[in-house]
Amino acid sequence: MIKIKNNVAVSDSGFIFNPDTGESFTVNPIGVEIIKLLKEGKTVDTITEELQKTYATDAQTLEKDAEDFIGLLRNFSIAENE
Amino acid sequence: MEQQRYERPLIKRVENDMPNKFGMKPENFPKTSIDGVKVHDLIEKYGSPLFVLSESTIRNTYRRALKAFKNRYPRVQFAWSYKTNYLNGVCKIYHKEGSWAEVASRFEYEKVLRNGVPGSRIIFNGPDKTEADLKKAIQNESLIHIDHLDELYTIVNLTEELDKKPRVAIRVNMDTGIYPMWDRFGFNYENGQAWDALNKIMASGKMELVGLHCHIGTFMLSTKAYGIAATKLSDLALGIQKKYNHQIKYIDLGGGFPSRNTLKGSYLPGQDINPNIDDFAEEISSALLRANFPPDNLPLLILETGRALIDEAGYILGTVISNKRSATGKRTTIIDIGVNLLFTSYWYDHKISPAQEFTHFSEYTTVYGPLCMNIDVIRDNALLPLLNKGDHFVIHQVGAYNMTQWMQFITLRPRIVLIDQESNVHIIRQAETLENFSHMEDTPEHLKTFEL
Ligand SMILES: Cc1ncc(COP(=O)(O)O)c(C=O)c1O
Fold first, then answer.
1. Which of B72, B59, B57 is nearest to B280 (CA)?
2. Does residue B21 surpass a pLDDT of 50?
3. Is residue B28 pLDDT above 80, yes or no?
4. Does any ligand 1 atom lie closer than 6 A to the CB of residue B336?
5. Which residue has the higher pLDDT, B3 or B391?
């Protein structure tokens, strides 16, 4: 399970601050949605399903991009494995 | 509920330094149509990738260039550099605008003749003119630009059997303050080779010395170099006038003006920093007018401008094949256009615009072509909006050299269309087929069948 770290602040406009590292990030709207869903404890599969309702693309592309994105969240110490 | 256009999730670290080089905005706006024709429609109808040429841009660029010179010097003639783009549909636009033709091979020479250009309006350059080529050029009264002494003597010999007096010029190479100096073509000015060759021509009495030629380089960013070249050729012309009382009819300064493309590694975009045609016209005209030609008898100025006239009129449309992340974490995008079609991506940071609307989010991306070769890179690091698999885009300013130096490597070359001034689309080159290539091959009888 992937989890967004508790102390990481995420604004609706897509601004992220990580107090552990002092770094800030910007995220586009779909990125904000993914982070929100992760915070709600959703799995990648569920997230992909949810997003597919909103966006005109195929499941494979969504899954590939979501995994890539979550990988970056982990690299930036915004998310961690539980 | 209607679904939204998909955009892949993106996260970017907020850096304290500038968002990109010199804090410029991303280089991009969507390019959804060309001369009134929708990019999506073009791809749907003619396929991807697709080269597109704009007749309006060709004509406007040509007219602007001609005006830049004519406003400053009374006698100017352009000769279209065939090697830059020798599609008949393109060449004929230049000929309709009044341009002569400049060629550097027999293949191009024949192409020009078939396009209906009179022999006397063809400039024949290059070091590899065979005896047969020269004979033909002499008979057609073409302007032969002699590259080396062997060619000069071949022409002298040919005059024994032909009843026409060859019309010749020599190509001169020289120091114009540019490094590297192109000294492999023609006769050198500084060491006296050029003056010697001219004397040989005059002394032989067998040829009509009509002009002087140089081509000092390509994508030249120095206008001064052209002033120096014009002055040096004028000096030779005036020397001939004085010694033989023979008038040189034209001075041909070749090509070499830059287009508005951005050279690789340049910090600022080409369209902001490259000198424009007016700057070159000013420098060249001033140098010619300053030379001591009688004002009522100025030599004709010939220009063999290539890329500066056609680059902007050419686009290539393509499609995203895949987005990936490299082992080092870098975003990469694979497109269906490789260096086989876009030779000039070795030279330029070609501008790439999505063919549909996009958000303000963008990402530094390496853009790869589809060929299975490591050198197949279209952009090393382009700040691009988030393109999806299957999205279309437009690569700008590809009109020069790509449609002549392209390679048939593992794929076939695509269609080329011309959009005319009324927004009608014409195919001016068909897509290649496997048939075209099998046609040229033959398999020996003993290799024709096998079992696996
Ligand atoms: C003799 C000669 N003239 C004209 C040209 C056209 O040059 P450009 O495209 O740089 O204007 C070339 C290009 O190599 C050339 O070799």
1. B72
2. no
3. no
4. no
5. B391
What's the rounded Cα separation, in Å, for the pair B346 and B350?
10
Six-digit token pair at B206?
A: 């067998």
**Whole-complex ipTM:** 0.96
- Contact status of A54 with chain B (Cβ, < 8 Å): yes
Q: What angle do CA B34, B3, B41 make, to 5 degrees?
A: 20
Whether residue A65 lies within 8 A of chain B, CB to CB, comes out as: yes
Domain ranges of chain B: 33-52+313-432, 56-311
CATH architecture of B33-52+313-432: Beta Barrel (2.40)
- Interface contact A8, partner B, CB < 8 A: no
Domain B56-311: which topology? Answer: TIM Barrel (3.20.20)
Q: Do A27 and B3 touch (CB under 8 A)?
A: no
Inter-CA distances, B293 with A64, B151, B176, B232, B245, Å: 72, 30, 21, 13, 13
- Each residue's pLDDT tens digit, B160-206: 999 999 999 999 999 999 888 888 899 999 999 999 999 999 999 99
Q: How far is the CA of B305 from the centre of ligand 1 (A)?
A: 6
Interface contacts (A, B; CB < 8 Å) = 70
CB B259 less than 6 A from any atom of ligand 1: no
| B27 confidence band (pLDDT: 50, 70, 90) | low
The answer, yes or no, to whether any atom of ligand 1 lies below 6 A from the CB of B135, is: no
Domain ranges, ordered by start, for chain A = 28-76
Q: Partners of B186 in the beta sheet?
A: none
